[in-house]
From TrEMBL:
<dbReference type="InterPro" id="IPR050783">
    <property type="entry name" value="Oxylipin_biosynth_metab"/>
</dbReference>
<keyword id="KW-0611">Plant defense</keyword>
<keyword id="KW-0444">Lipid biosynthesis</keyword>
<keyword id="KW-0443">Lipid metabolism</keyword>
<keyword id="KW-0275">Fatty acid biosynthesis</keyword>
<keyword id="KW-0479">Metal-binding</keyword>
<dbReference type="InterPro" id="IPR019791">
    <property type="entry name" value="Haem_peroxidase_animal"/>
</dbReference>
<keyword id="KW-0575">Peroxidase</keyword>
<dbReference type="GO" id="GO:0020037">
    <property type="term" value="F:heme binding"/>
</dbReference>
<dbReference type="Pfam" id="PF03098">
    <property type="entry name" value="An_peroxidase"/>
</dbReference>
<keyword id="KW-0560">Oxidoreductase</keyword>
<dbReference type="GO" id="GO:0046872">
    <property type="term" value="F:metal ion binding"/>
</dbReference>
<dbReference type="GO" id="GO:0006633">
    <property type="term" value="P:fatty acid biosynthetic process"/>
</dbReference>
<dbReference type="InterPro" id="IPR010255">
    <property type="entry name" value="Haem_peroxidase_sf"/>
</dbReference>
<keyword id="KW-0223">Dioxygenase</keyword>
<keyword id="KW-0276">Fatty acid metabolism</keyword>
<keyword id="KW-0408">Iron</keyword>
Amino acid sequence: MAETGQHHQRYERYEGGSPEAERRVFERLARELMEVQVRNRRAGGGGIARAFHAKAPVAVENARLRFHDDLPEALRVGFAQPGADYPATVRLSNASGIRQGDGSPDLRGAAVRVRVSDGESHDLLATSFPVSHASDAREFVAFAKAMAGARTPLQKAFGLLVKLPLAVGLKTAARMRRNVQAATRRTVNSLANETYWSRGAILWGEAGPVRYLLRPAPGTPPAPAPDRRDADFLHREFARRLGQTDVAFDLCVQRYVDERRTPIEDAAVEWKDEVAPAVPIARLTIPSQELDGAEARAAARRIEDLTFNPWYTTDDFRPLGNINRARKAGYQAGGAHRLGLRFVTEEPLRNRVLGRPVGALIGVLNRVVPWHRLPLSLSLLNLVFLRKVLRRLNLIDTEVREAPPKAQPVPEPIPERLRTERSYDGTYNDLSEPRMGAVGAAFGRNLKPDYRPDLFDTPNPVTVSRQLLHRESFVPATSLNVLAAAWIQFQVHDWVNHRRHNPGDRSVEVPLPPGHGGGWQNTPNGPAENVMRFAENEGIERPGEPPILFANSASHWWDGSEVYGGDEQTARFLREPDGGAGLRLEDGHLPVSGNGIPLTGFNESWWMGLSAMHTLFAREHNAVCDALRAEYPTMSEERVYQTARLVVSALIAKIHTVEWTPAILATEAIDVALRTNWSGPPKNWLNQLGLWLFEAHSLTGIPKTLPDHHAAPYSLTEDFVTVYRMHPLIPDDYELREHQFGRRLETVGFRDIQGGAAETQIRKTGLANSLYSFGIAHPGAITLHNFPRSLQRFERDGEIVDLSVVDLVRTRRRGVPRYNDFRAGLHKGRIRSFEELTENAETLARLKDVYRDVDEIDTVVGLLAENPPTGFGFSDTAFRIFILMASRRLQSDRFLTVDYRPEVYTPLGIDWVEKGGMNSVVLRHCPELAPLLPRGASAFAPWRTVRPTSDNGGSP
């Protein structure tokens, strides 16, 4: 195989100078071909068809390919052996991407799948002209775009004479037109009498490159002149022919001679027979049969659902040349689009035309007036354009992509059940790319990484923590309650999890600064040391690259994995026995393991607030199950469970979108924007007109749109993880109160309600009293000098860690740019002085003492120091990651877009999500709390406090 690889590298030249550069070009071209499919559908009617060869007059499953007994020795490679005989599927087609009558001027095509074994097949694709109209993939796609949707002679002429020259230039367009006209002017009476050329080369093992062709076997009778008014005359002729006899073609190969006469990269040059004679090596036979019976029609329908691709082969027969290399991505994208596995969101022309100048004007305006100080309609329009910019420039794919293309078997069929239910590990959310966003997929990036090992300890992160993060006195966020703090941890556990090495196996060491006192105890009862030590993250190793790529050990999707688990074994363990649909509960609470921590999907960093969230949504799952059983009594328990998973996960996504985020970003613009994300814009003519003019895609809520990954395959990002470092929300102490009379039950510290102690405490206090106690208490403000003391000496997995130091160190070591670069990368102006960041004299003095200049400020510190817009719970810089990723988590997920529908969720399930919210969840499971929830606000806003009547403040 090594020699085979050297063969193709010797013959091929990659566009852009490297396989990776070429891959990026081909991915863009593949998306453009999907847009061609949409335009052809509008012109031809019906569903999305193949971008080319949309109509197949003939499709059979029972053909045979037999290699000749005298196959030349040099061509005996792989499955090509003397006398070898294989079953084959054959599809003969018209070349147009629009289904039209067989008499229209057109080329014809042949697609043959040769089945060698269960794990090996070979797709052969050929067209009825010896050369391509396009020399490379760029020209090929330019021609497809110029002719997309063209049905009439006038439309075709306009495409050839106007659109094509504008795309490729006059000279190239003239050459392409000559090839097309020569190929299509021939009269075709029968597909059995046509010769089909591969036009591009493939490797033939050690024999080197070949082109192949299928030509009618000797003795194939001509066809009588057909009735060209019959739109399906090619099918009828072939059916009559097959009704009487077999139809056969000889498979021939032409061997490579030299780059001038038999080029690999230029598909527009013919390999002439006098230079490279066509050598017959096998015969393809379609046996005599009835082509119009029920069995034949069923076979034809199955073949229409196939995606042929020359890369469905083995390394010995790897396709060669620019067009062939592009075909893998192009055919996979087009096939997935046609089968409803991948989608295209069209941008209306008015949005494209008006968007650029208006976007530029808004950019100029923002230099004078920040978006949040503009009138409501203008600020909403500003957010629309900001998100457009972020989607275009701030989605970076970090996964290793295949470059150059590799041969592969035909993909396995999609498991049918995963079309309508979420997998446990996040696979098959995107049915065209099953591993996208799954457990183990790499975190992406919003900004180009800046990996600086020389600055890992500069300035010392312990000094940064003590001077700028440490909570000296509690600063409350008075517009929120502690349930908001518990909620975001509940969500982050669903979204992101960096796997850690076992303590002691591989650690990060942070030296203590001089004068730190008595050292640091890294393990319970361990010795005092002059370093802080904690487990290193497990990275994805790549030779020659810095260790800044990490896999997510949760799925990237919004799938409730913190409740249900991220693998099937865990999920089934958490369910009721004997396959019941409900989750296991004990007296309404989560069952507890031997260490006192509950059994649930994700239970790290456990505390009482987290327990309240998990308990609520485990109960909510069971309530959905009960409702589904009552409404659909014949539904199986497995179906009840899977449907309830979908409903609860979508309800969680909705609550976060339209309740939690507007609560923490308490401005009218954000409330409107996020409700628009879910439900569409308010019935306000000005807002609707603005969206119609500039982003029509937002005229409905995201659940009514198609999945769209925008500039990169879906993943959560390291930058997203950074802005969700919201530990200041956690108070260090809590007053637990009884909700009926307001009596104080007890005052506890965070450590008293953390880990195994949490479950004892919530059972003792009761869920209703716990929710009430958290509902009337404020979380900490997300600002400097407010990091919880209890988390600065936090015990987990046998380690004692300072999470404020961990936050700083992780962000540095993962290559997240420092604050000023982070800010600039999100299209905000750089700060030039410390005074631009804060007006607080004490903070200013400490910043100057800790950092040498503003470019050294840690990302976490800068985000906490920045003065947020009025009503915001965090900085405008962090908000830019939110505005990009908040809609992306919905927009990419088919279960929150195209498959958010009654057929998948059931009508009851959709109704449950649409009418539900955090208040309804609380009231369903603790109805006694109804008088205490805030009026006209989310359950994350402060609740009504019950005033105790006793003189001692309600103390027992």
